Amino acid sequence: MHDMGDMRALRFIKRIESDGTIRLDELPLHPGETVEIIVRPFDDTLADLVALSESGLGFWDNDIDDQVWNDALSTA
Q1: I need a labelling partner for 26 at 20 to 30 A (CA). Which of 5, 35, 65, 72 fits?
Q2: Contact 29, 9 (CB under 8 A)
Q3: How do residues 6-44 score in pLDDT, each as one tens digit?
Q4: For the chain, what percentages of helix, strand and coil (3-state, to nearest 5) are there?
């Protein structure tokens, strides 16, 4: 029976190589450690929306907008 106390999870989204393998870069685990690997198809139907939402965060970093909103609060 194994210890269920350590429930660390690492998530990778990888493409299967032409030879049918999946390459994982260096893992933060100890050599010889036993792990469970679950492979399932990745549903990337929302991937474009996620990428757009993450790339558009710079919009909120706007000094002029910050100044206008700060002034609006003091005159209200």
Answers
A1: 5
A2: no
A3: 677 888 888 899 999 999 888 888 889 898 888 888 877
A4: 35, 0, 65
Is 27 within 8 Å of 10 (Cβ atoms)? yes
Structural tokens at position 40:
């399932």
Query: Rounded to an integer, what distance in angstroms lies between the CA atom of residue 63 and that of residue 76?
Result: 20
Instruction: Report residue 21 as tokens.
Output: 């393998």
What are the angstrom distances between the C-alpha of 39 and each of 34, 48, 67, 72?
A: 16, 22, 49, 52
Cα–Cα distance list, 67 to 61, 63, 70, 74, 75 (Å) = 11, 6, 5, 11, 12
